[in-house]
Model the fold of this input.
Amino acid sequence: MFNLPQADVHPLPVDRIASLGLGTPGNDCRHRWRLLALLLPVLTVLTGCGNPQQPTSTREAPPPTVIVAKATSQPVETRARFVGRAVAVDKVELRARVQGFLKERKFTEGKQVEVGELLFVIEPDQYESIVEQREADVQKAVADEENASAQLRRGEELLKSKNIPQSKVDELQAAESIAKASISQAKASLTAAKLDLGYTQITAPVAGRIGLAKYTVGNLVGPDSDPLATIVSRDPIYVQFPLTQRELLQAKRRIKKQGGDAASMEVQARLPDDTIYDQKGQIDFVDVTTDPGTDTVTVRARFPNPDGTLVDGQYLGVVVQEGEPASAIVISQSALQVDQQGVFVLIVDKENKAQIRRIETGADQGADVVVTKGLAEGDLVITQGVQKVRPGQVVSATPAEKPGGSAAP
Done:
């Protein structure tokens, strides 16, 4: 219900009513209805004129809520990152050393083979016959030598009785020497024939996984053919990566300053899915020459590879730990903001106001980042809700939760 204001109501004079054409009070009800129609708008206006609405009381908006975490000092490992490639310790291309038709293939492609395991067989028939021929040549040479020796002995007896001249004996001595040399020559030919026969059986010179066979049984192969297959060793494996001369000098200075040894530096491999390989490697070689085109030196690390996770030729990320861990301030990367002046974070001061802090950052530590300049340990850094605040504004700070669910200290 509306509270209508009290209005002074004065009856209209009779003459005023008459001037309005409503007739006298004694007129019939038709005049009463005309009067009611005339006064209805006035009553409507009076009904809407209540007490003026009281203005609503203004309330200040609450300060925005933000998530904060303390800047903490933690042991941080100094790491350098590179791009490298896995290289097998042993990698052998199997080639035919004699010409012939492939008779057998004794392995399953992609499987592990051991040293000395028979892999291919080339038809040996022609090489077996050559061996037999060379064996006969040796026997003939031996017989010739025996005959030459006997002739020489008879000639020496005849020489004593002056029945033959000395020149004839000299000829017999030369014939014996030639016969002995023929034996050596025949034996050498026999050895070569046996080697060729042995080359018809191709065995694994190293242990490792064998790849695809490039030729099938029945194909003609020989010294001029492409490799029959390739064997690569699996465990251990090398990872090689280039290092610029500048990076090499800086690394040597840091290691020397910390009293470390380059051979003791741990190396980790980052796999293509951005995970860290679970085996750590050790640097075992630094090249003695520099690539003049790139001014880089090849560095090699040796990794255990029992499960064959690393594959020859595979591209990898290389993470090198340089020296012992050092203490540094670490914050969440979600707190970082960038503008034209550089990197900054928002902190909450003692008056619960957001303030800008210009910082310099170092290496990433997973989801965190090292801060080398601009923050002090214990500063409350806004990690969530940065978009809702502006510098100097009062905020409501809530500590970030630890992974276990409790609030961070």
